[in-house]
Specification:
Blueprint lengths: L2 H8 L3 H9 L18 H15 L4 H9 L6 H38 L7 H8 L10
Helix pairs in contact: 1-3
Length: about 140
């Protein structure tokens, strides 16, 4: 298939494929007679792998590492990388939960204020008195 056909089959832009080629995530096939590059089913599979890994939160550098482990002989290394990614996701979830609680607290302060007073949300952010302002993130 052509690069356009590959892009359509994977629901990506042609420029996405070219970007992945520049990053070394996908190989650029040799030009055949007529100067047109033809992509195989293996290229589509690799493109799906990249997109699936991105949806799981892996960076392009991490995906490149996973692609090197693709042969199946290094399943334990792939598991270790996935476990590290999961730990990072859990940390981000904890941070998001703290952010959610702090925003709820600040919004509650806004709802409690009446009249021409200093905005409690802005004041808390400026003064660093919100609970999230004191966390380690």
């Amino acid at each position: 298939m052509t690069i356009g056909g590959l892009a359509r089959s994977a629901d990506v832009n042609v420029e996405t494929i070219r970007f992945y080629q520049r990053k070394g995530l996908m190989l650029e096939p040799l030009r055949r007679s007529g100067g047109i590059r033809r992509y195989a089913e293996a290229d589509r599979s690799r493109l799906h792998f990249i997109k699936s890994a991105q949806r799981l939160g892996f960076s392009l550098d991490e995906i490149a590492d996973l692609l090197q482990l693709e042969d199946g002989a290094s399943c334990s290394q792939a598991r270790i990388k996935a476990q590290a990614k999961l730990a990072g996701v859990r940390t981000r979830l904890e941070d998001l939960s703290r952010m959610e609680n702090a925003l709820e607290e600040l919004i509650g302060l806004c709802n409690a204020s009446r009249g021409m007073v200093r905005c409690p949300l802005i004041a808390a952010l400026k003064d660093g008195t919100s609970s999230f302002a004191h966390s380690s993130t």
